[in-house]
Amino acid sequence: MTATILDGRATKDAIFSELAPRVAALAEQGITPGLATVLVGDDPGSHAYVRMKHSDSAKVGVNSIRRELPADISQAKLEAVLDELNADPACTGYIVQLPLPKQLDAGAILERIDPEKDADGLAPVSLGRLVLGKPGPLPCTPLGIVELLRRYEVPLDGARVAVIGRGITVGRTLGLLLTRRTENATVTLCHTGTRDLAAEVRRSDIVVAAAGSPGLVTPDMVKPGAAVLDVGVSRVDGKLAGDVAPGVEEVAGHLAPNPGGVGPMTRAMLISNVVEAAERAAAR
Ligand SMILES: Nc1nc2c(c(=O)[nH]1)N[C@@H](CN(C=O)c1ccc(C(=O)N[C@@H](CCC(=O)O)C(=O)O)cc1)CN2
Ligand SMILES: [Mg+2]
Fold first, then answer.
1. Is 120 part of the annotated catalytic residue set?
2. Is residue 251 part of an annotated ligand binding site?
3. Would you call 196 a catalytic residue per the annotation?
4. Ligand 1 atom having least distance to the Cα of 95
5. Any alpha helices (H) in the chain, and if so which ranges?
6. Quick check: helix, strand or coil at residue 240?
7. Where in the chain is the domain with CATH 3.40.50.10860?
8. Is the dihedral of CA 216, 220, 221, 227 positive or negative?
9. What is the pLDDT of residues 126-136, one digit of tens each?
10. Where's the Tetrahydrofolate dehydrogenase/cyclohydrolase NAD(P)-binding domain (predicted)?
11. Tell me: the pLDDT tens digits for 34-60?
12. Which architecture characterizes domain 140-262 according to CATH?
């Protein structure tokens, strides 16, 4: 078997073609969505992701606002930048690029984001809405995973899913999304304390690897025909490495590779969240 590739780049482009006319319709009502990014420090990966977010915005007609801040910024100064964005009508949505430098309290920063402008769905109010099943912005990577599976018609209803990694940006929130009645999957949230990871993966129809552990998921662990999504990002000898080992494509039925799978979907869902928030604001 050779897996069908879940092509995140092509799917992102398709989503952008769907979003562009919606942005044009907002423009006719005199509304231009504006996405701001808050980037602290010099991490080259974070700089690259933020650059991509602005280039994506330009493609669909969303305005860009950038705040680049020094790595040693104080909590108070960073919070003041967020207060400015909360008050700026040109900024209809914004994100704080993660991770933040260690001296900063990331939880308090996310709490400072006006929930109406939370483009990442990571502010506590948005996470609470997700838990309660209320409408609101959803975290971009989990949303991108669900959207990618949906567009490739990978069945979720009743599927057994192994999610590896319990972080807020991917694993924990993906578990919440996949167990909604609309998705109806059965999720096992695996982590470093999981006793027999191979057994959990082997009985799963869908495997989402988001541990940041290079080559963690090997071909012998995968049920033939399963869908495997590689979300892990690590550096090995200066090169990007995912969580899925070579050879899995020979066993899996579907594979979201890394790069080219879930990463572009994360960006597509960010822009989609920005457009949806602007549409909600226009309807008020
Ligand atoms: N505030 C946030 N911080 C972080 C998030 C997030 O959703 N919100 N997620 C990740 C980083 N991330 C977005 O910020 C992100 C990661 C990867 C990609 C992507 O398109 N990757 C490409 C490869 C790009 C490359 O060439 O390096 C791919 O996988 O094909 C986009 C966004 C952590 N921080
Ligand atoms: Mg900290």
1. yes
2. no
3. no
4. 1
5. 8-28, 44-60, 75-87, 106-112, 124-132, 140-151, 171-178, 197-202, 262-283
6. strand
7. 29-114
8. positive
9. 999 999 999 99
10. 139-281
11. 999 999 999 999 999 999 999 999 999
12. 3-Layer(aba) Sandwich (3.40)
Give distance in angstroms: CA of 97 to centre of ligand 2. Answer: 13
- Ligand located closest to 140 CA: 1
> Measuring from atom 10 of ligand 1, which residue has the nearest CA?
98
pTM, to two decimals: 0.98
pLDDT band at 1 (very low <50, low <70, confident <90, very high): confident
Residue in the block written with tokens 């690590």: 234
| Best CA proximity match to 136, nearest among 117, 151, 113 | 117
Ligand 1, CB within 6 Å, residue ranges: 48-49, 52, 95-98, 120, 140-141, 169, 258-260, 263-264, 266-267
The pLDDT, as a whole number, for residue 80 is: 98
Pocket test for ligand 1, best of 37, 49, 234 (most atoms within 8 A of CB): 49
CATH 3.60.110.10, domain 29-114, yes or no: no
53 assigned to active site: yes
- Bridge partners, 244 (sequence order): 217
Region 253-272 average pLDDT:
98
Measure the CA–CA gap between 56 and 62, rounded to whole angstroms.
8
At 44, phi and psi to the nearest 5?
-60, -35
Which residues of the chain does CATH 3.40.50.720 include?
140-262
Q: Is the ipTM of this complex over 0.95?
A: yes
Instruction: Point out the catalytic residue in the list 7, 12, 56, 97.
Output: 97
pLDDT tens-digit series, residues 196-222: 999 999 999 999 999 999 999 999 999
